[in-house]
Structure prediction request, 202 residues.
Amino acid sequence: MPMEYAGHDKSASRTKLSGLRNGLSEALRNEWSSLSCRHLAQWLDAHSCRTVMAYVSFRSELNINEFIEWCWKKNIEVLLPRCVKADHSMTLHSITGWEQLTAGSYGIMEPDLERSSAKPVGTVPDVVIVPGLAFDRRGGRLGYGGGYYDRFAEAMLATGTPPLWIGAGYEAQVLEAPVPSDSHDLQLDGLVTERGLMIIGQ
Ligand SMILES: Nc1nc2c(c(=O)[nH]1)N(C=O)[C@@H](CNc1ccc(C(=O)N[C@@H](CCC(=O)O)C(=O)O)cc1)CN2
Ligand SMILES: Nc1ncnc2c1ncn2[C@@H]1O[C@H](COP(=O)(O)OP(=O)(O)OP(=O)(O)O)[C@@H](O)[C@H]1O
Prediction:
């Protein structure tokens, strides 16, 4: 598929999908977020996992704050990303409380440089929880077009021991048809929604 078409295809899908997500009521979003957090916790409890890279939700994304707090209680290290706009890369910071965050790029709450230090480049978490606009059941993901997670995944691959990538969203964001994708797009290993966590078979 020519790149120009691929880009266009994604941008039309983004507009439609963010409208769809914004249309979900706050009450339902909260309920579904809570349920998804419980599924994540249950799964992590059954798998030995020391370090999780999570995200802090913005706009109407699935909110995984309860899961982050559960990790803190369980002494699972929580890494949160900071966007580097210059090259669309992300740095990872170990975070132990909400007070270590500050409003960052795109209005997303990010690790405050004065209250957290970046992990060394090449740090690989056991699991990465990946936000997105839409997902399919084969590991496809559509993000906001920054390419942040795709670049991050490429850097992780280079370390030789990639983490487990788990997409997180509402069931309403899971499309039956494959989401538009390009060759650089991150392939997810699993997906969590309010209905449960599924591992994607090859
Ligand atoms: N909670 C959360 N944190 C995250 C992500 C995410 O999806 N969710 N990211 C996942 O990558 C990164 C941030 N990526 C982003 C990329 C673009 C836009 C954005 O506002 N894009 C504009 C359109 C861009 C354009 O002008 O072309 C928009 O959507 O209006 C926001 C975040 C890192 N942190
Ligand atoms: N590994 C990579 N190296 C260089 N450029 C990349 C890489 N991955 C993606 N890009 C570029 O980044 C841009 C955005 O990619 P894409 O539309 O797939 O982002 P996305 O996955 O939706 O965004 P995000 O991860 O920020 O939510 C595209 O122009 C793409 O060519």
